[in-house]
Amino acid sequence: MISLRALQACLLACALFAASPSRASSLQVAPTGLALAANQNADVLTLTNSGSEAMRAQVRVFHWTQRDGKDVLEPTRDIVATPAMLSIAPGTSQLVRVVRLTSPGATEGSYRVIVSELPPPKKQDAKVGLQFALEYSLPVFLLPPATAQAGGYALHARRAGNTLEVSNSGRMHARLSTVSQVGADGRKTTLFPGLLGYVLPGQTMRWTLPPAKDSGTSAFEAVINDDNAASPLPNSTTP
Fold it and tell me: Are 60 and 74 in contact (CB under 8 A)?
């Protein structure tokens, strides 16, 4: 079981390893996420080496859930990525197939594909320096049949001490960004200006709130998924 805090959503924290100081990280991955329809068994990721030296990469897959308000990753065989280990020549790209091995369910399935740049083999008499190795965490969603997608997500939010708690009782995920607090006078205070994170179907997430001007209000709004404008997050009365 792996906490997603160690991996993050989208681009993960860069890890340091010993290597030639002249070699720069060069791994690029596209797209930044996948959504497989109920009748779709596979999709592809493109890994590109934009550097001047050959590089190695590892691809791992995990089942993604949320427990006690936190992201959790666990090994899975519901989907596989192939090849899992690959070497990419400079200036070239390789495809990685992400294949579904499980049947569609009534609720969207949530997974993460972790693509890691591996350190190059050590060269004799090479100078030792610090090198950034890129690691990407990409969301993969297995969509339910179209008839089960009606209603999508169903969010409720509440203030729990110094945290924002958001629950999703729907069948589809919700991606929250540009989260604001709405005061009693209607004035809005932006709490999280960029991407905050995901709330998976049937699960709950919590985020620590930054100091706000009106600490007593429980009204919040957010931009959800690909919406152009913010929507209110209905208040939850469940403790």
Answer: no
CATH number at 155-232: 2.60.40
Fold equal for 2-147 and 155-232? yes
Please report, for the chain, the start and end positions of each structural domain, with discontinuous segments joined by +. 2-147, 155-232
215 or 78: which carries more pLDDT confidence?
78
pLDDT tens digits, 13-23: 333 333 334 44
Rounded to whole angstroms, the Cα distance separating 207 from 4 reads: 14
Look at residues 137, 147, 81, 149 and name the one whose alpha carbon lies nearest to residue 109.
149
pTM of the model: 0.85
CA dist list (Å): 210 to 89, 120, 166, 168, 214: 45, 41, 16, 22, 11
Domain 2-147: which topology?
Immunoglobulin-like (2.60.40)
Name which of 202, 207, 161, 170 is nearest 4 in CA terms.
207
**C-alpha 98: how far from its chain's center?**
16
Nearest Cα residue to 225 out of 152, 166, 165: 152
Supply angle C-alpha 20, 54, 99, rounded to 5: 125
Using CA atoms, how far apart are residues 9 and 5, in angstroms rounded to an integer?
Answer: 8
Question: In this predicted model, what pLDDT tens digit does every residue of 30-77 receive, in sequence order?
Answer: 999 999 999 999 999 999 999 999 999 999 999 999 999 999 999 999
* CA-wise closest residue to 116 among 58, 74, 73: 58
Cα 73 from Cα 112, distance rounded (Å): 8
Asked whether 129 and 18 are in contact (CB, 8 A), the reply is yes
